[in-house]
Amino acid sequence: MNILERLYIAVFKEKAKRKLFSRGLARVSPPNLEPVLRKDAVHFKHFGLIGDIIYAIPAMKVLAGDRKIHLHLQINQKTLYKKSMKHPNEGKILTEKSVSMLAPLLLSQPEFAVCDILTDQPVDYDLDEFRNYPFDYNTNHICRWYFHMYGITADLGQPWLRVNPDHSFKDEIVIARSFRYRAPGISYDFLRNYPDITFVGLKEEYEDMKKAIPGLKYRVVTDFLEFAQIIAGCKFFIGNQSFPFAVAEGLKVKRVLELCFECPNVIPEGKDAYDFCYQPQFEKIVRELYYQ
User: Fold this and answer.
1) Rounded to a whole number, what is the distance in angstroms from the first to the last CA of the chain?
2) For 190-219, how does the pLDDT look when each residue is reduced to its tens digit (9 = 90+)?
3) Domain tally for the chain?
């Protein structure tokens, strides 16, 4: 295929994408963009994923203003992942256990008054409405999907999560790596040369990473508040585009993101934010952070 043929195909695909976007846009109605008049609290609905919920917090804070956030989570929705992509909830996006793990973290934030399972509560903002729009959700920044939806903004360089750090991890590199969103050509083997590395995440993910890092330790947590306290207290955090990195990004700790080139919708912002998709640069970042 010569360069002219490639250019023709690229232009054709671009026109097709524009046509599909325009058709999709014509089929949706915008949400209520007027301010909610409740005086005491603002009610939000979300069906997950749990990382998306963390990335929705800046929007919830802006929309709630000085009022308390009541977050109602819809459970047992069918997974958005392909069958080939491993996920712990067995075909569901959020489960009752997911909510019980997440609630302690959110309720520790002063802006949140409620985090529960959706039944018949009032809903002022359905945070899942963005999925009705024909946007390419493999791109941009997940936080900004909600900004686009409601015509708002926030400073994403500032923390939107705060917890008391677990200082027993101050000398530890903490890592998490899901089976999803792994960058091709990336190896964690070199980390076996660094002492004091702890894995947080699923047991099967830990067992997989232990093949690369034989001395890797594993920490089981009771809930995601404990999880966040470990990340807040560590020397620095390494993760890919999954829930643990969302927590690290919200906390604005020293953090290193393994970027998935096929789905670059997580964008580290602010101080101490690094991302990589090439091996030498990954090793350089770790080396410099470790010896700071």
Assistant:
1) 49
2) 999 999 999 999 999 999 999 999 999 999
3) 2
